[in-house]
Design brief:
Blueprint: E1 3-9, E2 12-18, H1 24-30, E3 48-53, H2 63-71, E4 78-80, E5 90-94
Parallel strand pairs: 1-5
Antiparallel strand pairs: 1-2, 3-4, 3-5
Length: 97
């Protein structure tokens, strides 16, 4: 079984098939996605993404991610890619600000 991860960046759309339970860090190691990582530990926010659809198919926020997102006044549809695993189909936006 695979899930579809659709990534929108500007006018470009990329769809990647992946195994459920993987995280964005794993697919970004194999595919050029436009998602940047730095700390990989909920400390910098460089990997912030916007969830366009499929939020229910993502892993729950870790305590560290929730704290960081709250501190940066993130919108409810924003997540940190470094902390997020996908369990079903999801569509996200990168560089949406």
């Amino acid at each position: 079984m695979t899930v579809k991860v659709t990534i929108r960046r500007g006018d470009e759309t990329q769809t990647i098939s992946a195994r459920p339970g993987l995280g964005f860090q794993a697919i970004c190691a194999k595919h050029k996605t436009g998602i940047d990582f730095d700390c990989r530990a909920s400390d910098c926010g460089i990997c912030a993404i916007k969830i366009l659809s499929g939020a229910e198919a993502l892993s729950p926020k870790t305590a560290a991610e929730a704290d960081f997102l709250r501190a940066m006044n993130a919108d409810p549809d924003e997540r940190l890619a470094c902390q997020t695993r996908f369990l079903g189909d999801v569509e996200i936006a990168v560089d949406y600000l």
